[in-house]
Specification:
This protein is an alpha+beta fold and about 180 residues long. It has eight helices and six strands; from the N terminus they run αβαβααββαββααα. Strand 3 (about 80-85) and strand 4 (about 90-95) form a beta hairpin.
Length: about 180
């Protein structure tokens, strides 16, 4: 797997197709210097399901699955595919309209990561995302990532408190 080439390729696709996006999940954690094994690059895309073709046409091996990807996205389910050139699996989630998601998307950071300019989720929104995933999956990895961000990265605690309260998220005693 070549994450640098995989990131460069998918960012080029998003830019070429004029698709607003942000990198989230474990790969985004790497930007904040928490290196742990992750097998994919998670992306949130601000497009409609019928625009998924704009991404998939750059990965022609997956065109036969386009309708399935679109159908999954219509139901709020992520779709994923592997780029056989780089060995990278991409998990794609379509933006779901809500006050919080709009705010998180607007707060994404344009950064240089692996010498590639890209948009990464703000650390506070990674924390909120990981709280949500932990509530669903009970994965200790999510809590470990949150502990790392709270310890190593300057975060806006007022923002965290506000959105955790509005979204009724448990903080698991972390902050």
């Amino acid at each position: 797997m070549n994450f640098e080439q995989g990131l460069k390729k998918i960012v080029a696709v998003f830019e070429q197709e004029d698709i607003p996006y942000m990198i989230v999940g474990g790969f985004a954690m790497s930007y904040y210097n928490r290196f742990r094994f992750t097998a994919d690059i998670d992306c949130v895309l601000q497009i409609y399901p019928h625009h998924i073709e704009k991404v998939i046409r750059h990965f022609p091996n997956w065109l036969p699955f386009l309708e399935q990807f679109q159908e999954s996205a219509k139901h709020g389910i992520l779709f994923n595919f592997t780029d056989f050139d780089t060995g990278i699996k991409y998990d794609m989630m379509l933006y779901q309209d809500s006050d919080y998601n709009w705010t998180a998307f607007e707060r994404r950071h344009k950064v240089t990561f692996m010498d590639i300019e890209c948009f990464i989720s703000a650390p506070e929104d990674l924390i909120i995302s990981k709280l949500r995933w932990h509530a669903f999956s009970k994965s200790a990895k999510q809590l470990d990532d949150i502990k790392f961000l709270l310890r190593e990265v300057t975060v806006n605690k007022t923002y965290l408190d506000t959105w955790c309260n509005r979204l009724s998220l448990s903080r698991y005693g972390l902050f």
